[in-house]
Records
---
Amino acid sequence: MAIILKRQLTADEKESIIDVHGRVCFATGHPIPEDQNLQFDHIRAFADGGVSELDNIAPMCETHNKQKGSLPLGVFRVKLRLGEFFRRGDNLTLKHLLRYMKEKKDIVGFGQAVVVSDNGDSVHIDTPDNGTLHHPLYTCPTTGWKYFYATLPVTLLDSDDDDEQKVGLQPRYLIFEKVFDLYRHFQVHPVLQPSIGRVYQDRILLFDGQHKAAALLWTGRRSFECKVYLDPDLRLLNQTNISAHDKFAQTRFYSSIMVFKLGTEFGNDFENYKNLEDSAVKSEAGFVKYLQRENSLTSGEVNKRFRSYLYNSILKDEDNKSAQFVSNGNRSTDDKPLTLDMLSNHWC
């Protein structure tokens, strides 16, 4: 039977939920005294694939239900736990998160010792719990370094931090907002790039993609797509890694190319909304709710797409003589001396 919390749960339904979860707040697991009101909410939002049945509903205390605002209950619980983790210090890396999750029994372990054998065209990885793994080996045409791609369990992975025995390649610390935003993103979107690591002695260490791996851990992922180098030149690899996070860092998202993509998507979504065969009256507020529901967008993301739609309409207008001089990226060139930032400052 489908349950939608726009109506009141029956007493029997509430008892059924309490039988599963206990009289505890799902957000933190703390007991809710008998003299305090129980409240109920969806664990996972409908927009994120949550079902509208009793097994997607859990009890909450009144305080935490107010604090969570519009967040789904499951997301709010992760946000609270993330806050608990980040209160442990300022300079936290993936290794600290792995230790935290092992301590909390979210994972059974990490960083297990392995024996890696180069067999010419393939690599063999002898593991304590997963037997022997076999993967094709590839060779970088520039450096001659060998590497392999694999989906590896968290038990075999560690963070490439500095310690007393080695200089680590991990270039930066975890950021709360970035981990949380990626966690929400990966609930409904795929991962486009593997994390990158190296074999050091008898460990597989990740040095690129730690925010991605950290976010995926919070989604419940326990295996990770990785690209792993066998025996790279540490100095050159370190220089390459620093450059990738500095001078060659990805351009900011808000370029004219992305405005075109976001604006086009916004326009297509609006056409789909207008053509919905339902009894609801079509309105701007209804369209915003449609975007939030169908694409899991926040209000800020909806506004950004609307601005992109407006900017793109201006750029693509046949009477706009300046559009040909707008750079696709965030840097101007001799042929295209204008950037979207320059134009948006004048348009706004």
---
Amino acid sequence: MPKRTPIEFGEKAVATIAGSPAQLAKKSKELLRLRPSFSPRRSPIGATPGVLHGTSTGNAPPLDVIAWDGEGQVHAFEAEELQQAADALESYRYVWLNIRGNSHLQTLEEVRRVFDLHALAVEDAWNVPQRSKLDGYERHLFLVLNHLALASEEDVPEEQQALLQAQQISFFIGERYLITIQENNQTLFEPIRKRFLDPHGQMKKRTPDYVAYALADAVVDSCFPLLDTLAEQVETAESSIYVRKHRGVITHLLSLRRRLHELKRLVTPMHRALTDLLTLDSSLIHKATRVYLRDCVDHATRLVESAEVAQDHAKSLMDVHIALSSHEMNEVMKVLTIISTIFIPLSFIAGVYGMNFDPEVSPWNMPELSWFFGYPFALLLMLTVGVGFAFYFRARRWF
């Protein structure tokens, strides 16, 4: 199953972009290539809408099915064919089908046929990445969210550890069914599955729209640990700045700002899509579920606001870093200027007495050169001038 392009994240990522300007330029190009690219499955210009283009990669994905009657009876199994999930509706009232992988074209075409899904919605589930959104159709709702998580060691090479992965989750919410399509084979919703199988759980008495809420809430909550990690790194950078251990911190802050921007770019449309789902006038979303959706929207709102605060914090730290660097440079230049100002007249005096005029030729040719105290007098004169300048600068509070 193909993996989404990871977004570099964390301290190890910051370490990879430290180095000379030439190395930074090279690493910047590599970082740009890590950003999500356009899908190779995109429909050609002028193609018929709703038709899936491209080819399948890998085998058919696993089909996790949970069927329940809304009164406490539940049956969970892994289907070998999509028709088994549809047949479960004859014995049970509701069905949740989770397709762990969207790269098998025949599977998506078959799920569209079996459950009578709209072709445009299935095309968006196939042609990733899509922005988070909500589309309403005659028989079902189509919701797109992005699940964010840190890449595990088996997902990425060792040199790209601590990366952030964004995975599109497509929801098809019907009256008696819920279909979710992931991008890969990960078991993202195992906690929700356990709630179904819990003998004392209430999930098996809920409707598909409530299950969709529970999954959406899990997707939103998965972003908070990532945001906390980024915010903690921003605070660490702030401490480094104020204790004047900020060598290379500007590179770190730029990296954090880009990651916070990427996080905000993903969660802002997700908040908008959940808000649309809450306010949508549809019989597929029951009144009892809207109460929980309101709480999910509140979580998404807090997530967006926290991302904005962290991003502004990183930006302000960059300004502080630049101001402190300028202040330190001004202090250095002030000290050098004062030293230069003091030594300019001393250099003048030394230069005057370094002229090779013979006092025997003329009484005006530096008669003090023949004086017994001539050399001590020149040193004392230079010391007096230097000390005088120092007291003058001190009196003017220039240092």
---
Amino acid sequence: MPDSLNKRDWNDFVLANQGSFLQSWEWGEFQESIGRRVRRLVSADNNRLAQFIEFSLPFGKKYWYCPRGPIAKELNLSPEERKKDFQDSLFRIIDLIKGKGVIFFRIGYPLEWSERKEGILESFGFSKLPYDIEPSQTLILDITKPEEELLAQMHEKWRYNIRLAERKGVMIKNYQAPISNDQFETFYRLVDQGTSERKNIRHHDKEHYRKQMEINSEDIQFVLFVAEYENKVIAANIMVFFGQTATYLHGATDNEYRNVMAPHLLQWEQIKEAKQRGCTEYDFWGIVNEHTKDRRGPSWEGFTRFKKGFGGREVNYIGYWDYPLNKPWYFLYRLVQKFRR
């Protein structure tokens, strides 16, 4: 699996095969900007690619992590041919990693869940991670429909809240990356002192968000949306536009102004902006349901109710899977992670 595609070819492949922004070249550059090494692998036949992020562990060990990947071209193969194709790619990855101190690698194929797919991964020696890296359950809204139909399929209370926010004078603005320092500080204040503090939710460090808000190219844009009320920003979200998918990645609110319903109007304006940009789907990026294995607090139930109020289809991915290359070290790693969580 040579590292042979340039940035243009790489993104063209990811976009043509409905890959996630997490496999975009720019996401790899973001990871490098926060001090991580990125490995981009392409199969010999150019039908599969994978962007791995290298994480360091104690004693010179490391692991490779492929978010929402690998990405594969849809081929007209029989089940046996598909299995053989996957096996060949797996062996190439193993051959490349050997001798580099990597104790395991992790993949998160963007495939919808089924017992059969899980069984195939298990048969190759993969072990399913008992928690999420990115959310394995999400809500996808088809935004090819007219605005009137999108409004009609919402919960009636959500339509009322959108109109209420408009009547109260909530204004929605958006700023494409790179944003100003004042805009960033306003967003981070809401993250640090608003939603996270109120709901006891862990969040990334400041530079993580700052570096994300520098991502802006012809293929991918990070956009900050804010809701203003009485000249004060009371809610802010970060959206990612990549190909035909708009993703609601981060959000934060000021609890003092809950009665003006700014988050409802903010989501609606983001949906309309995504339609204007030619997107066909809106990813709410994470819900909880009967498939969720990760331990999450009660706040996630509230997030889920909020997102479901806008309509959409629940999508359950197969989650993240580890392939141990050094089983004793991998056992020790999982044991430590279990106690940390």
---
Amino acid sequence: MKQVRSIILGMFIFLILASPVFTKAENRETNFTAEPTLIPVLIYHRVIPKTSSLYDYTPELLEEHFRYLKKNGYTPITALDLLEMMEQPEQLPSKPVVLTFDDGHKSHYTEVFPLLKKYGYQATFFVYTNAIVEKSEKLLTWDELREMWQGGMDIESHTKSHPYLTQIFKDESQEAYLKRLTLELRDSKHILEEHLQQKVDLLAYPFGWYNKTVEVLAVQAEYRGIFTVNWGTNLPTEDPLRIKRRVMENTMSLEDLKTLLVAGRPSIQVIYPEDGATFYGAPEIKFKITDSRIDTVEIKVRSVIEKIFKNKDGFFIWAGLKDLNSGYYMIVIKGFDKENQPFTYSWGFEYQN
């Protein structure tokens, strides 16, 4: 990182866009030989008596999920536990799950925290610091966050103001954008550390939007683990800078929850687009699944869903994206393995017009 800081701004951006970020996960991939443990990470938002959004949960519905986890032998661990256990996978429980709650809503203290204590669970709360105040009826306070942390909860960063991190304002220079982005990432970490008197190592991207520029600056801000909203379960060998999380929706049934928890991970070789890449035209999607018995999958990009087939060369190729608007696009691949068990895999790219 010292070398990155020493180069001039123009060369820094060139290197960011031209080079992938390499992590220790890539080196561990071939060394981990035991049957891997699947690690789902779930994202909840507000927990309120009367829901008004797809992402709101009632306390009763959240407790139903907790009961399901308890009945089926799942062990909730924190996001920080996950990062540390990825170094020593043998420390993972047999059926781990990471519960995360985003944005710092008051209900995380009044509803979620008591439920977690009731079930003996731990969870991670990703908060953006502009939302934390001294007194509030709708948002968490610093005293409440400190109590939750002292009660065994994990408090981590969700930036300062919860912006779309890849979005450059109108008439904003590249230099000004990078400075603003750096402050969003760095200052939120320092503010949390100052108020909670604890080290903050993790970041969750607001809305899940990221690209290589954002990722490199997050590493420069000294985050050791970064959480996306890309779908799928995680492996102990997961890239710690691109941990997958699934946003929970209140229309999901317990059967849907079960599928999220057990969904396998196919061995996919992503050809194009590379995860976190930036494009100025709609890319053709190309990937390969090493299991030769899988010849059909479903691809989903935002509202576009289509079934695609493997070609004679063993590749899946899809060019169904048209008329894109600027933003982050998650590519979701779904299918079934030879035992008819579901699998999910996803990655994403940023499009700028």
